Amino acid sequence: MPEMVTVIVDDVSVTMPAGSMVSAAVLKSGKHAFRRSATGEPRGPLCGMGICFECRVTIDGEAHSRSCQTICRNGMDVRTDG
Amino acid sequence: MGESRHVCDVLVVGAGPAGLAAAFRAAESGLRVIVVDDNPAAGGQIWRGENSKPASADAQVWFERIRSVEIEFINGARVFQHGAGKTLLAETTHGVAELNYTSLVLATGARERFLPFPGWTLPNVMGAGGLQALVKTGLPIEGKRVVIAGSGPLLLAVAAYLRVQGADVLLIAEQASSMKLARFGVGLIFNLSKASQALGLRKSFSRKGAKPEGRGVRYLSGCWPVAAHGDGRLECVTLVRGGKRWQVACDYLACGFHLVPNVELAELSGCVIESGSVRVDEFQQTTVPDVYSAGETTGIGGLELSLVEGEIAGLAAAGKHEAARGLFAVREKQRKFSELLNSTFALRDELKSLVAADTIVCRCEDVRFDQLRTQSSWRSAKLQTRCGMGPCQGRVCGAAVEFLFGWRAESVRPPVLPVRVDSLIRSEFKL
């Protein structure tokens, strides 16, 4: 078994293999809308590589963090706008 | 937040195959080399996660080479602007890193080209490489229904990877015509998707257009998505092929229309960009002295071309021009292949009519197609509609707008990526 880490996505605990990205944890938690667009549409990851900024969430209080470029750490608090 | 200062002979931006090859050749020549990359680990997109666990022979060879020499890696750092003299500034989680170099190698790779169509902004409609990256970094895909669409050899590589991970890949829709694919050689396309997957891939795919045999995946040429549907997230996709139009229910639509080079940093560095790629001389040097570029940044050509260009750039930066010259023939062969690749997967004009009046083109600022079609240029679109002015700075809509209207994004300005105000303040003192 690989080492696991647990993050909290909108108050839901999600356990992921160590090294996983926050974006994967958000989807695994059952959330599909990561943020709301300028006109209020739900949005989720598009590019998966840090260029599109569609997967932005709030991580440990820091808004506009790219979830696809952030590795899950134990106890991390992730907030979507979904 | 703090500052750090790093000095090197060769600074490589991008830790994909081209960047790693350049870094290795320069370090092997005894130079002090730093590789800076936005991602948490080296490997770029194609070798994502293979630093620790190589899945392909190429990755294994190159990561071993990298470990055999001394190279400083600065990961999770986004280069956002130039400092005074030969300096780049990068934002890290700790603050701003000042990177001082004698030679610079820009190996910033490529991104997928996304084309707008109704529903493309729904959650779970992603890039093909985008979904692959998510799965590589922990997204469980087992049993999920995936439609792969768009254009290019990446679609096949992604399909093969996702199947190995247990996804239910329903079909692959390739916009290129069967005639173009045949000219290219379907076998060659399958060969492109290298790695351990290659054989399994070839076996698992039935002939194009044929009914699925066993667990084979249909590879449909001349087929593309016209709409994605769902309430709050993707539920199904409408595809067209010939005169036929049908819907497929799925959990993910992985859709990318081949690739476009990431040239923003090169442009900011003053390098001449030609047809969307960085112009380089025979030694991979850009139009700016001591600034080299290699890999997809100089034109989409795949792994082998990226590696050989990287090697040439690294050797040239180390002054080993004769050794670099020895690799020209290999590069030439790969370039021919690249030309064939790009003409095969050139986008058909019909794709320009996928977009509806109310389809969002710029996802950052929610700019609709009908707001854009009355504009005369990229500049006026920016000024009048805010198209391309959001956090991605036109990296997504730029390629789409170029395809739809023929406008080229112009005037890249620092910072080339959104950064913290703190980083901007610190950078003020470096200029």
Element-by-element helix/strand order of chain A: EEHEEEEE
Average residue-wise pLDDT of chain A: 96
Instruction: Identify the strand order in the major beta sheet of chain B.
Output: 4-3-2-8-21
The helix fraction of chain A, in percent, is under 10%
If you had to describe this structure to a student in words, what would you say it looks like?
- The complex is a heterodimer of chains A (82) and B (431).
- Chain A has 82 residues and is mainly beta.
- Chain A contains one helix and seven strands; from the N terminus they run E-E-H-E-E-E-E-E.
- Chain A has one helix spanning 22-28; strands at 4-9, 12-17, 35-36, 42-43, 56-59, 62-66, 77-79.
- The longest helix of chain A has 7 residues, at 22-28.
- The radius of gyration of chain A is 12 Å and the shape is globular.
- The mean pLDDT of chain A is 96.
- With 431 residues, chain B is an alpha/beta fold.
- Chain B has helices at 17-28, 57-68, 128-136, 154-164, 178-184, 186-192, 197-204, 264-268, 302-317, 321-325, 328-344, 369-372, 378-385, 397-405, 421-428, and strands at 2-7, 10-13, 33-36, 71-74, 78-82, 87-92, 95-100, 103-106, 110-112, 125-126, 145-151, 168-174, 218-221, 223-229, 236-241, 244-249, 252-257, 259-261, 273-274, 277-278, 291-293, 360-362, 367-368.
- In chain B, strands 4-3-2-8-21 form a five-stranded parallel beta sheet, with helices on one face. A five-stranded parallel beta sheet of chain B has the order 10-17-11-12-13, with helices on one face.
- In chain B, a hairpin with a 2-residue loop joins strand 19 (273-274) and strand 20 (277-278).
- The longest helix of chain B has 17 residues, at 328-344.
- Chain B is globular, with a radius of gyration of 21 Å.
- The two termini of chain B are 19 Å apart.
- Chain A binds chain B through residues 16-17, 19-21, 23-25, 27-28, 32-34, 37-39, 41-54, 56, 64, 68-72, and chain B through 38-40, 45, 49, 76, 78, 111-112, 114, 121-127, 129-135, 137-140, 232-233, 262, 360, 363-366, 390-392, 395-396, 418.
